[in-house]
TrEMBL record:
The gene is proS. The lineage of its organism: Bacteria, Bacillati, Actinomycetota, Actinomycetes, Micromonosporales. Pfam families: HGTP_anticodon, tRNA-synt_2b. It is found in: Cytoplasm. It comes from the Bacteria. This is Proline--tRNA ligase. SUPFAM superfamilies: Class II aaRS ABD-related, Class II aaRS and biotin synthetases. Gene3D superfamilies: Anticodon-binding domain, Bira Bifunctional Protein, Domain 2. Its main location: cytoplasm. Residues 32-281 form the Aminoacyl-transfer RNA synthetases class-II family profile domain. It comes from Micromonospora sediminicola. Consists of three domains: the N-terminal catalytic domain, the anticodon-binding domain and the C-terminal extension. GO terms for cellular component: aminoacyl-tRNA synthetase multienzyme complex; cytoplasm.
Length: 468
């Protein structure tokens, strides 16, 4: 393959930008910090959406939609929340050629406006739990933008729920964390995430607990891929989300919120991409098998079309490239860049021998395969390569994660990967010291790897890393 990307080992940030441009995933928008998601990138996002949406609905939540504009007064009613978001807010002061009586905020997240309507819709304990989700765009004015990772406007889902008890709210926040987020990231995106509790310093503004899914990227840095929050009764009290209990009293609800975004696309690129471009896990790939006519000849087009149809009938998402007026080498490079899991190359020479060539993106292997066996070979490759991408990422994370006993050792180890250190050796003062050196506590775990309820539990382990 011709070299079209900056090598990852030479300049990882430049490689990332090159890949996004050359694979035609996205472009910078006309306003600083915004992005245009191109069809190739949006097709992957649509697959992420579909997989996530199915998991959210399986957990009982229903989709709704809430306004883009939020009265400024709503945010001010939850003081800690507005304080946490103040530097990122985009505020509209004029509309229709006139100054507005009250400024409106372009939603950075929707706890406040959804809280207002939860209060309106909930009356009795019979109305609980109320489980809502919306797919939307949000705006957080970003000072250091990077496509997919940090942009002033991005796409996401945000879930918001209200419950009768703290226990029910916690259980639901964790259900989403594991059954929707962790399951999607591990089993579809092929990204082995560490699931843990955020420290108070890293907690979402207004939350009582924040749970996170952290993935290691190809340069050893961490990326937060999704979070689920217990909000306690903070928003319920600010917006009077209350209900009549079975005993006849009036109680405030317990609420949660949770979200994942187009940041997952950035994580996909940086976790699985290589010097030839994207490598998309087969379960996620919009195109799983790409049938390519190498050169037209007697029976080639017909054979390629039959293979496409046979693959489609076998349940494979397939596309046919018959653009023989474009050089095959260029088309092959583009297919590598876009990360199609399997290519099936059909040309006169191979077809004369009764074969097509099956090319696997994950390991680069090429295998002449009898035409009658192509469907079986493709199905086997898709299954094997889904596992292979996850296992490669897991092995990389293991190789770049070290166990240490002191804060100084953890900060040093964070230069090349992750450090696992006793939380008691870090604590609040140590976390501030690490932050001053560009290192953050990504999450806290119990000794057995499970998710703690509180950072005050004994014998917790902290994961420290540099992060995006």
């Amino acid at each position: 393959m011709a070299r079209v990307l900056t090598p990852r080992a030479e300049d990882f940030p430049r490689w990332y930008q090159d890949l996004i441009a050359k694979a035609k995933l996205a472009d910078n928008g006309p306003v600083r910090g915004t992005m245009v998601i191109r069809p190739a990138g949006y097709a992957i996002w649509e697959r992420m959406q579909a997989e996530m949406d199915a998991r959210i609905k399986a957990a009982g939540a229903e989709n709704a939609y809430f306004p883009l504009f939020i009265p400024e007064s709503y945010l001010k009613r939850e003081a800690e929340h507005v304080e946490g978001f103040s530097p990122e807010l985009a505020v509209v002061t004029h509309g229709g050629g006139k100054q507005l009586a009250e400024p409106v905020v372009v939603r950075p997240t929707s706890e406040t406006v959804i809280g207002e309507f939860m209060a309106k819709w909930i009356d009795s304990y019979r109305d609980l739990p109320l489980l809502l989700n919306q797919w939307a765009n949000v705006v957080r004015w970003e000072l250091r933008p990077r496509i997919f990772l940090r942009t002033s406007e991005f796409l996401w889902q945000e879930g918001h729920t209200a419950h009768a008890t703290r226990e029910d709210a916690r259980a639901y926040a964790r259900r989403i964390l594991h059954e929707a987020y962790e399951d999607l990231m591990v089993n579809v995106l092929g990204i082995p995430v560490v699931v843990g509790l955020k420290t108070a310093r890293e907690r979402f503004a207004g939350a009582t607990a924040t749970y996170t899914c952290e993935g290691m990227m190809g340069d050893g840095k961490a990326l937060q891929l999704g979070t689920s929050h217990e909000l306690g009764q903070n928003f319920a009290k600010a917006f009077d989300i209350s209900y009549s209990s079975a005993e006849g009293g009036r109680e405030h609800a317990w609420t949660t919120s949770w979200g994942t975004s187009t940041r997952m696309l950035g994580g996909l690129i940086m976790c699985h991409g290589d010097d030839n471009g994207l490598r998309v896990p087969p379960k996620l790939a919009p195109v799983q098998a790409y049938v390519m006519i190498v050169k037209d000849g007697e029976g080639v087009s017909e054979a390629a079309a039959k293979l496409r149809d046979a693959l489609r009938d076998a349940g494979v998402r397939v596309a046919l490239d018959d653009r023989t007026d474009t050089a095959f080498g260029r088309r092959a490079v583009d297919a590598e860049l876009r990360g199609y899991p399997v290519r099936v190359e059909v040309g006169p020479r191979d077809l004369a021998a009764g074969n097509a060539v099956v090319v696997r993106r994950t390991d680069g292997s090429k295998a002449p395969t009898p035409v009658a066996d192509v469907v079986g070979a493709v199905l086997a490759a898709l299954e094997a390569d889904q596992r292979a991408l996850h296992d490669q990422a897991l092995e990389f994370r293991r190789s770049r994660t070290v166990e240490v006993s002191t804060l100084a050792e953890a900060i040093e180890a964070s230069a090349t990967g992750w450090a696992m250190v006793p939380w008691s050796a870090v604590g609040v003062p140590g976390e501030a010291e690490a932050n001053a050196q560009g290192v953050t506590v990504r999450c806290l775990l119990r000794a057995d790897g499970s998710v703690p309820d509180s950072e005050d539990e004994p014998d917790l382990v902290a994961i420290l890393a540099r992060a995006y």
